[in-house]
Structure formats: structure tokens, C-alpha cells
Design a protein that fits this description.
eight-stranded mixed beta sheet, three-stranded antiparallel beta sheet
Length: about 500
Amino acid sequence: MAAPRTLAAARRAAAAAPRGWRAAGGGAGGGSGPGRSRLYEHVREGLSARPQLEVSALSERELERRRGPLRGGDLREIVQTWSRLGEVRATIARLEAEKGRVAQGVRALMAAHDKETAEALPVYAALRARGRQVRLQLQALLAEEAALDERFYLKALQLPNRTHPEAPVGDESQARVLEVVGEKPVFDFKPKGHLELGEGLDIIRQRRLSHISGHRSYYLCGAGALLQHALVRFAMDKLLPKGFLPMTVPDLLRGAVFEGCGMQPNATPSPVYNIDPSRFEDLCLAGTSEVGIAGYFMDHAVRLEDLPIRVVCSSTCYRTETDTGREPWGLYRVHQFTKVEMFGVTAAESGDESEALLAEFLGLQKEIFSELGLHYRVLDMPTQELGLPAYRKFDIEAWMPGRGKYGEISSTSNCTDYQSRRLNIMYTDGAGQLRHAHTVNGTACAVSRMLIALLECNQLPDGRVRVPPALQPFVGQAVLTRPTAPLLRYIGPNQPRGGREVP
């Protein structure tokens, strides 16, 4: 039940909606706020092809199991709207054809008779009357078509992907442990947290920054900065020989691309930073390079023989992390971090291609984390943790001794054709026909959380930290040691003596 991509409908919609149009219906684009879908606006303005949504592929049972803005009754309403829209479009097509026949009949009469004679004929009057009637009917039906089209997309764009039949049902507590790799590090002393270790080594600064960069910000300096670069380089060096295409992407992207990826730039609260709309109509800061890479393929087709295409990108990621009650200190939940992301575009000839690519990405993640000596577990994530776009998702959690628990360091998701149907990402099949591609994404290295696991798992009793052998060539040190003296001494107002004393 795919929405048609007819030029006539697209032109009518674009003509009916001036730039800056806002929908009057409910929110869309994955819960992007009441009365607005940036992706639908993008399409209405003629900037992209219309999404081809397969709403009949989703069941009410699946919808109820996902965590999203819609429930089973909404799906019934969407299907009913689509059905009526199809009826209206069929009637419009029939009336457009009849209008053409009426016009042809009038022209034939005018060609066979002079004007005065033709206009006196009863058949001429009947044709003119029918022509007026058809035009009035078309006017009403075109208005109904536009209203139904808006109602359909504003709801249907909030639907999630289908769900893999083996995905656990429920919330995060129902995640299924598929594999545990390595062993927990054993200490004969009480292990410290990464922030205490980082401050002792003078490589992480997170205190006294509220007046500089706000809550959840941090500095990495010295070996901390070197560790970040080392992790990025290590991940890139691991992936490039495996056929990944390196890419850099914009940090600022239109909200339509976010919605096409299944993200929520205008949800309340939203994990996405929106740029001042009074100056920039529609720009957001990306929380993952997945958005930018998907945007690279938007409205483009690739050849079957070039698939799968594997892309790797290192970028700065921006997330609002509005839940300030959790993880108030440290690098686990921060507003900005560096991440190396894997993204794949693959065919859908057999239907198994994206599942194979998902397994490949998961294998690469395990290879990276194992070579860094981490103890971790692989989780098959349950239905309520899949977001809107994922058909299936695997998370990897590493043991973090300072926190005394596992913490997520990566995820990889098979989004099947969910993103490609919204962003018009196509490939040419063996018969030369355009088909929707499948997309897969996965974290190769989220630096901030990797630093937590590496610092806490490799600490020594005196506060020093061993550098994993795989990173030593990049860092230039085997062990991180305390500096002989701290680089800085605080002289600001937030101290017992009330600020700097000037002799």
C-alpha cells in the first residue's frame, strides 16, 4: 500500500503550499510536535520526492508493542484515510479523463459548424453544462484530496518500522543477553570512577564549567585528547581496509532529514538541538553522523553491482540529554562527543541482505572492543527500545568498574527500507528498475563512553592507567601517569576566600 509519487499530485500540493507552510493536523515525522512535519513540508515545497510508505506492512499488534506516539486505533484510521484517498484519486482521474472528452467534443462541434450554429445545438449546451459540473466536482475533490493527503502523511510518518519476529517484547528490562565476551577485571583495591581518575591524571576537566559551556560539558587535554584521537584512528584503521568509504558530513542538517531517519527534532523534550528559527528556518545539529550520511544518499539511486555500500564517518555529535537527574557528572551523558559511525546501504533482492550487513557490523564492533581488551555483553534489544526506524537492534554494553555496572557503548540497527522510503534512497535492480534500498547503521566507537570503560578497567592502585596495547602506538605511552604538578590553579570566585587575591 505505497503512497503514489505522481507528478500531478506533487505539483498540486506544492502549488497549494507556499514556503513556510505549516500543517493544521496532528504532529508527524516521528512525533515532531503538534501541527507540523518538517519532512512533509519539505515534500510539499517540491524539495524532495514524496515518501512511499507501506502502512499495510505493519500490524496493530506490532504497533502496540513499540514505544511511539501511535497506537492500534491510529493505524486503522491511517488505513481508512489511505483507502478514501485512493477512492478520491480514482474519481479525480476518471473526471479528468471525462473533462478531456468533453473538451474534445466541444472542439469537434466548433470545427464542424460555425460558432453561432454550434452554440445553438442542444448537444453543445449539454457538453458545456457537463463541463461546468465536472469542474465543480474536481474542485471539491482536489480540496478533499489535499486534506486527506495531509491527514494521511501527518499520521503515517509517525509509524514505526516493522519488528523482527525474534525481537524480545517489552521494555529495556527484557533485553536478551546473546553473548558475554571477556572477563571482568579484578582489583585488590576499590576501583575509582573515570572522572576521579581523569582529574587525577589531569586529562579530564568537568568542574567549574557552568559559566563557560554549561552543564554536561567537559575538556580533554594531554593524554585525554591523545586517547580520543587514538580511538578514532584505531577505529578508522580497522574499517578502511574492509571496504568502508570514509566520509565527512555536515553537522547542521534540515529537520526533514532527521524525520526521514526516524528521529524527532521537535519532540517535547527533544534530543535534537534546533538552531534559532528566526535566523535559520530549518536547521538542527546532528546527534549522529547517520543523519548526514543518509542525507548524502537522499533522492539518489545506486547501482546493484555497487551494493552494499559501507560508509564510515567520524563526527562531533550533539545531544540535549535533558534528563539531568541521571549521571550528573562524568562522560556517560554529555551534550557533545566524538563518534565513529558505520552506515550501510544494501539491496533488497532476497530480503536477507540487510540482515547479513547487520551481522557484519556487529562482528566489527566485537572485533574492535575485543582488541581493546574490554569485557562486554551483546544484547538483543526489545521492542520498546527500537525507536521508530529499527527493525532489529543489538546493543553492546561494557563493564565499567567505577560505576559498578555495564554501560552501553554501541548499538547497531537494521532499518530495512524505513529510512529509504522516507528519504527516497533507491537502487537499480537487475531488471533496471528502481527499488528502495535497505539501510543499516552501527557505532564503531563512541569516544566518551569508551574512555569510561578504558580508564576504569585499566586503572592501577596509585591512580595511573594502563594504555591498551592497540592504542599505545597512537598515544605514545604505555601507562598514563599523574603530572608532577597540575597545569592550572583555580583563582575564580567560587572558593572559600572569595576570589583571586591581588597584593
